[in-house]
Amino acid sequence: MTDVHTPEQRSYNMSRVRSKDTKPELIVRKFLHAHGFRYRLHDKRLPGKPDVVLPKYKTAIFVHGRFFHGHDGCRYFVVPKTRTEWWLDKINGNKRRDTENQAKLVAEGWRIITIFECELNRKTKDATCQNVKKHPTIIPVNACFL
């Protein structure tokens, strides 16, 4: 099956795919900031350059897109009909690299939270963000210790 776009159109479409400051990432960042968390973005010193780093809690948050990171079991994830083998190699390579980087972070004592973009849709984003806040590795800044 051939591509429905010309090579120039496909190149343009793919050039518009962002790797930083995506809408799902901004949702997570806005929630964290509103709840008193302070963070770093895309820390190059850490394996995998996590999207959000909470240094105070030694926690790294990855916000993954369902397509490029191959969200297993997601009803929205669809393997392309064109160049299927190439895309599967690409997606599986990304998943392997994600696993390796997360293992390195855990070995360095970091805690990992992974959020997929489909967990941040209109209906579930509030629950997902609340789960991040309640994650056992994160203690809210305004928590009272008696």
TrEMBL record:
InterPro entries listed in its UniProt record: DNA_mismatch_endonuc_vsr (IPR004603), Restrct_endonuc-II-like (IPR011335)
Family recorded in the similarity comment: Belongs to the vsr family.
Role description: May nick specific sequences that contain T:G mispairs resulting from m5C-deamination.
Pfam families the record matches: Vsr
EC number per UniProt: 3.1.-.-
NCBIfam families cross-referenced by the UniProt entry: vsr
Domain of life: Bacteria
BP GO terms, sorted: mismatch repair
Keyword match DNA damage: yes
Keyword vocabulary terms for this entry: DNA damage, DNA repair, Endonuclease, Hydrolase, Nuclease
The protein's name: Very short patch repair endonuclease
GO molecular function annotation: endonuclease activity; hydrolase activity
